[in-house]
Design a protein that fits this description.
Layout: E1 2-9, E2 12-18, H1 27-34, E3 45-50, E4 57-63, H2 73-85, E5 96-98, E6 101-108, E7 111-115, E8 137-141, E9 144-152, E10 156-161, H3 170-178, E11 188-196, E12 199-206, E13 210-212, H4 216-228, E14 235-240, E15 243-248, E16 257-260, E17 263-270
Parallel strand pairs: 2-3, 4-5, 10-11, 12-14
Antiparallel strand pairs: 1-2, 1-17, 3-4, 5-6, 6-7, 7-16, 8-9, 9-10, 11-12, 12-13, 14-15, 15-16
Length: 272
């Protein structure tokens, strides 16, 4: 028997498991089986809580297709809430080890504010098979040319600004870009509409999960891309299908900060 908690952060939903109590032998297989929305619990990702030798806790992340990923901004807010709600830590600022480094979520009233670290802007380190900063690089996809700006928030993102994100064919163009030869580790793909100097509207095609209601690292990458292009101020609200995130960045070498909610939905047990 494995005890799990179903959580979401503005619609990006997760199966959260404490590996210290409930070890899972085949994490890729488990994720594919139980993230399935018809034959499993249903989720975008499995979030795993574990012990860490370098931080307060460690977070593991597996997509619905069984692939392991470096970081999930919405997922780390959900994990922080999971930890605080169960009294596992009294600290107002947690240190959580991820494959993208140590990330620090902090209490912010009813919200959670996360120090996401500095964005990676060098193409080869994102990784994308292009040199230097990748800003407004033309890319031909599905018979049309789109300008691409690439950012890593510990995981790769390709950001595209479009006139009308609501009608944009995300589910057609997204998977084509995700698996494009330019991206050696595939990529997350964001489609963004500029509303004002302080507001953006975004839809996301997540690597290994498809279109989701929200993506925290994607919102961060989108905010950074818009700031690099001079479209918005240093603090911006990103409207996603599942809700809003506030993204802040000073435009220099400092950290990106993401503020948003996390919600527990239900608990249960499963046989694996």
């Amino acid at each position: 028997m494995i005890r799990f908690t179903k959580m979401h952060a503005i619609g990006n939903d997760f199966i959260v498991i404490d590996l210290r109590e409930y070890p899972v032998a085949d994490l890729p297989g488990f994720s594919k089986r139980f993230c399935h929305r018809r034959f499993g619990i249903g989720a975008d990702q499995v979030i795993l809580l574990d012990s860490s030798k370098t931080a307060d806790f460690r977070m593991g992340i597996y997509n619905a297709d069984g692939s392991e990923v470096e970081m999930c901004g919405n997922g780390i807010r959900a994990l922080a809430k999971y930890i605080w709600e169960r009294g596992m830590s009294r600290k107002d600022v947690l240190e959580i080890e991820t494959l993208a480094g140590i990330i620090r979520p902090a209490r912010a009233g009813d919200m959670i504010r996360v120090d996401m670290g500095a964005p990676i802007l060098d193409g080869r380190r994102i990784p994308v098979n292009l040199d230097g900063r990748v800003i407004d690089h033309p890319l031909q996809v599905e018979g049309q040319w789109l300008d691409m700006t690439c950012v890593s928030m510990g995981n790769p993102h390709a950001v595209f600004f479009v006139d009308d994100v609501a009608s944009f064919p995300v589910t057609t163009v997204g998977p084509t870009i995700e698996t494009h030869a330019l991206f050696p580790k595939r990529t997350n793909v964001e489609f963004v509409q500029t509303i004002s100097r302080t507001e953006l509207r975004m839809r996301v095609w997540e690597r290994g999960a498809g279109e989701t209601m929200a993506c925290g690292t994607g919102a961060c990458a989108t905010g950074v891309a818009a700031m690099l292009k001079g479209l918005v101020e240093s603090k911006v609200t990103v409207h996603l299908l599942g809700g809003d995130l506030i993204i802040e960045w000073d435009g220099q070498a400092g950290s990106v900060f993401m503020t948003g909610p996390a919600t527990e939905v239900f608990e249960g047990t499963i046989n694996d």
